[in-house]
Write a structure and sequence with these properties.
Length: about 220
């Protein structure tokens, strides 16, 4: 028997029933996370001859964060009687979420110098990441612990604030990410005007398309939050 709580609730105090197909959808996304974790780590160790540097470790740590988050969802929503280990399934996603969101921004920052030669812009991006990340992560940690407490009295009091803070954190990280991706797009467009080599232009166009898609998804995410 699965828990009556739903991952699609606005806040957990509502205690909705699982709707038809929700269990299958949740399980599919979790299975996809596990598959991507394996694929990313295999590719990381295949591609990187020297396993060091910010880029390598950010991808490595970020994939582990995704795995922790997915495992916590299994414990909380798909395992009967998981309330007994609520500290574990609360600790795992808080650490996992903080890890992979910061790692994702770090991956973008670690390669920014390849397209943006301005030290001033690089410093501002760095300051933006190290300023915004702790604020959003600490705020989320403070509210999620009481919100996920199995005690109904505590949960009812903190669920709505936790849901609001979670959306603010998601919005904040999305704005930071779209800002960095927008810098990539602007710098790549400028570099395309200077490069005449066909191979270099093809690589830059591919990067431009990828970052353009990333910006589009980030904007959609900001709209939907």
């Amino acid at each position: 028997m699965v828990s009556e709580y739903s991952v699609y609730a606005v806040h957990q105090a509502e205690k909705p029933k699982w709707l038809p197909g929700e269990e299958l959808a949740a399980t599919s996304f979790i299975a996809l996370t596990y598959f991507l974790f394996i694929e990313v780590n295999v590719e990381i160790h295949r591609v990187f001859q020297r396993r060091r540097g910010i880029y390598f470790w950010a991808m490595q740590v970020g994939s582990i964060g995704c795995l922790l988050d997915a495992t916590a969802m299994i414990l909380r929503y798909l395992v009967p009687g998981a309330e007994r280990v609520w500290i574990l399934y609360t600790l795992m996603p808080t650490v996992g979420w903080a890890t992979y969101t910061v790692a994702q921004l770090t991956v973008l920052y670690s390669r920014l110098h390849l397209v943006c030669r301005s030290p001033r812009i690089q410093r501002r991006v760095f300051y933006m990441i190290v300023t915004v990340s702790p604020i959003l992560i600490i705020a989320d940690w403070v509210t999620i612990w009481p919100a996920w407490n199995p005690d109904p009295a505590v949960t009812d009091k903190w669920s709505a604030p936790a849901a609001i803070v979670e959306r603010i954190a998601q919005l904040g990280f999305s704005i930071v990410e779209v800002t960095i991706n927008a810098i990539y797009v602007v710098c790549l467009v400028r570099l395309l005007k200077l490069k005449s080599n066909v191979r270099q232009r093809r690589v830059m166009l591919d990067l431009l398309y990828v970052n353009g898609v990333a910006v589009t998804f980030d904007i959609l995410n900001i709209i939907l939050v």
